[in-house]
Amino acid sequence: MDFWTTPIGWTILTVAHILAVTVSLLLIVAFIIYGDRKIFAGVQARKGPNVVGPFGLLQSFADLGKFLVKELVIPAGADKAVFLLAPLISVTLAFGGWAVMPIAPGWGISDINVGILYLFAVSSMGVYGIIMGGWASNSKYPFLGSLRSAAQMVSYEVSIGFVIITVILLAGSMNLNQITEAQAGGFWNWYMFGGGLDNLPLILIMFPMGVIFFISGLAETNRPPFDLPEAESELVAGYAVEYGSTPYLLFYLAEMLNIVLMSGLMAVLFLGGWHAPWPAGYLESWPAWLVSLHGLFFFAIKTFFVFFMNAMVRAIVPRYRYDQLMRLGWKVFLPTSLVAVAVVAGWQVYTGFGS
Amino acid sequence: MALQAIAFYLMSAVTLVAGFCVVSARNPVHSVLWLILAFFSAAGLFVLLGAEFLAMLLVVVYVGAVAVLFLFVVMMLDVDFTALRQGFARYMPLGLVIGAFLAAEMILVSTAVATRGAAKDNDTPMASGAGVDISNVEAIGRVLYTDYIYFFQAAGLVLLVAMIGAIVLTLRHKPGVKRQIIMDQVLRTPATGMTIVNPKPGEGIGE
Known about the structure:
The complex is a heterodimer of chains A (355) and B (207).
Chain A: H1 7-43, H2 59-69, H3 80-96, H4 115-125, H5 127-136, H6 140-171, H7 176-181, H8 203-220, H9 232-235, H10 245-270, H11 288-316, H12 322-350
Helix pairs in contact in A: 1-10, 1-11, 2-10, 3-5, 3-10, 5-6, 6-8, 6-12, 8-10, 8-12, 10-11
Chain B: H1 2-24, H2 28-49, H3 52-76, H4 81-85, H5 88-115, H6 136-144, H7 149-170, H8 182-186, H9 190-193
């Protein structure tokens, strides 16, 4: 008992906690990739991966083996250090974002006061992996891809920031656990629906904010229809042209992790995080670990639901042209979310912050 | 406490080394990357001070936005690296003098602030640990929107003017360039977008 509160015991416990989350994330991402491909195939009336393992479930692990045993090729003109650093930065940041994610009551690794700002900072730093990789390759297509990616991610961060501010205004906190807690007790308290029956008129603001967040999340993670940094019809594979073997695997892993992170963030900010869609008073008599499992179940369901929509968008919506992408970000999302911040702030002052 | 001391010395060392590499790196892109590392470890130092809000703002604003655009510009510049280095020996004395002045001013100002100025009575002004019952987001907000509201608004005005200036400088509509107007495209109907003609045999379509 006492050992676990000493510095050494605390360190061991925290490292074990981080490892548990990381390993389960890796396993989940393996099946997320499989699910993504299956959904994509289903929309196109194909079968998708179906050879490795039952129903092709082990396809991702076969791909992993293939990537790992391939030869690592570094182009002669590449900036070697930056070239290899880029995928490492990408994947480190993608994992780092999960440090503050409230996956279940009491199961998040870290519970910090500015959790949402931390996630915002991490996702805004994700651009460095791509921009460094594209530049260090010393090749035309990757460079164009990285420039596109830099402009795109900086543009959509602005609207994501404003959408996050509306949620912060409603919750009155930047702590992700408190934001989740503020949405307890039924789906009508979720911020997607304005956050509570008293705030019902806000559904007119918050529902579009949720949609803007989802679309901006697509742009922020370079997902289709905004995958211009790697548009294969124009740039071959964009910033990843010169990458192969493990560095490419890391880029790919980082991209999928970021997508799941954005889905999770959407679940936390707008869909009530770990809370059930109905008032869960019955939880009071349950033991703590069962409450956590209950929370994890709902968090996972919501995250997978957002991811499913993400995958459907990828399969259905054609790719944007670059100027259309910029127009959408700066001329549509930015003014809309800016007005929404003003309206939500005014509403909060008018109603006395829900009291 | 020992852990905090280790973290402090580690991050200070990284900040100093990165700052030195910013000016000594041969490749300007590497300089920017070192600068980003310096920003990042400075944010770490803020966290150690208990000012996590400022740390996150530093990362979001400087690392996430300013440095990206910086990197963007530097990458696209076609700089002759050898030409840049040529005047190094000639300008070094002047640079050293300016650097010494800057260092002296910084030391003087910070000691004056710490011993006689605003931070005289505060041990850790932004700490949000034990003993302080409000988070430092709230602490900053309370000071910023009450005591310093005019300065805050003035800063906002300066930024607004700068933004308008940047737009005025770069926005120009060249005559003769076709622009896409989405609204017009969306509002196009069969009635406005096409005409149905019924040419007589042997005549073709006239103007």
